């Protein structure tokens, strides 16, 4: 087995452990990502134990695909739907007639 492959895998595992810590620090938002990273870590450990080079390469590619979490967690304290909504966007409520109101005749002649 290629020792460089094992060195690369251990380096990526250490990086992904740090990324998982960042996700855990985000609270409930990062909980799912942290769990997925833990599962990937276990899979990589099992690949090393079994010595399966194809599985090690697969785990290495998966670990290398892991990205850093956003630095600043989103803050919804300043969110205002009226302020953040685009003003020119048509609303569905404007297109549908309200209950009890008759639809206007749109150019239809009433003579039959």
Give an account of the 3D structure.
By secondary structure, the protein is mostly helical. The protein is built from five helices and no strands. It has helices spanning 3-25, 31-50, 53-64, 81-84, 92-95. Helix 1 (3-25) runs antiparallel to helix 2, helix 1 (3-25) crosses helix 3 and helix 2 packs antiparallel against helix 3. The longest helix has 23 residues, at 3-25. The model has no long low-confidence stretch (mean pLDDT 77).
Write the layout of secondary structure elements.
Blueprint: H1 3-25, H2 31-50, H3 53-64, H4 81-84, H5 92-95
Helix pairs in contact: 1-2, 1-3, 2-3
- What is the chains' assembly state? single chain
Q: Write the element-wise H/E pattern from the N-terminal end onward.
A: HHHHH
SSE-based structural type: mainly alpha
Termini separation = 88 Å
Alpha-carbon Rg, integer: 27 Å
Average pLDDT value?
Answer: 77
Kindly estimate the percentage of residues that lie in beta strands according to DSSP: under 5%
Give the overall shape: elongated
What are the segments in which pLDDT stays under 50 over at least 5 consecutive residues?
none
Counting H and I runs of at least 4 residues, what is the number of helices?
5
Largest sheet: number of strands, sense, barrel closure: none
- The overall strand count is 0
Q: Tell me roughly what share of residues is in helical segments.
A: 55-70%
């Amino acid at each position: 087995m290629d020792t460089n492959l094992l060195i690369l895998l251990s380096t990526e595992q250490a990086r992904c452990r740090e990324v998982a810590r960042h996700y855990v620090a985000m609270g409930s938002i990062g909980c799912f990502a942290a769990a997925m990273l833990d599962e990937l870590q276990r899979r990589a450990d099992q690949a090393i134990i079994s010595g399966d080079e194809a599985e090690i390469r697969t785990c290495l590619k998966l670990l290398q695909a892991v990205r850093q979490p956003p630095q600043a967690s989103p803050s919804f304290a300043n969110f205002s739907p009226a302020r953040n909504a685009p003003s020119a966007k048509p609303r569905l409520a404007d297109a549908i007639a309200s209950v009890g109101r008759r639809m206007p005749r749109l150019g239809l002649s009433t003579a039959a």
